[in-house]
Amino acid sequence: MSNKKDRAFTVRFTEEQFHHIAEQADRAMMSPSNYIRAAAVRGKVNVILDGKVAARELKAIGNNLNQLTVLANMGQINAVYLEQVHEDMNKLYERFFALADKEVRL
Questions:
Q1: Is the whole model's pTM more than 0.70, yes or no?
Q2: For residues 73 and 105, what is the distance between their CA atoms, to the nearest angstrom?
């Protein structure tokens, strides 16, 4: 099956429907057209991970690691034991990709 999208439908939505679709597409981290396409082909789209929440958590973890790095470079701290952080990040990484494998986006 070709991925070339050379055909189009023109569809009209009420304001409420439009906002609902845009909101659901945003939660699924998809464009509205990809969301509508996935919903039409599959019958529904399962959002298994709220991307904004996950991104916010990962950003917070990154900020904390950056703060530790700055403190270490300034000589404010001598040793940081990150074994548990490393294990937790590996678990998060594995879970994230396990979830991502369940949802293949069009």
A1: no
A2: 42
Distance CA 38, CA 106 (A): 6
Q: Residue 87 is which amino acid?
A: E
Q: Do 35 and 45 meet the contact criterion of CB atoms below 8 Å apart?
A: yes
106 has a pLDDT exceeding 50: no
- Separation of alpha carbons 80 and 72, rounded Å: 8
Q: Give CA–CA dist 72/61, Å, rounded.
A: 17
Please write down the HEC assignment for all residues of the chain. Answer: CCCCCCCCCCCCCCHHHHHHHHHHHHHCCCCHHHHHHHHHHHCCCCCCCCHHHHHHHHHHHHHHHHHHHHHHHHCCCCCCCCHHHHHHHHHHHHHHHHHHHHCCCC
**Residue range 21-39, pLDDT digits in tens:** 999 888 877 889 988 988 8
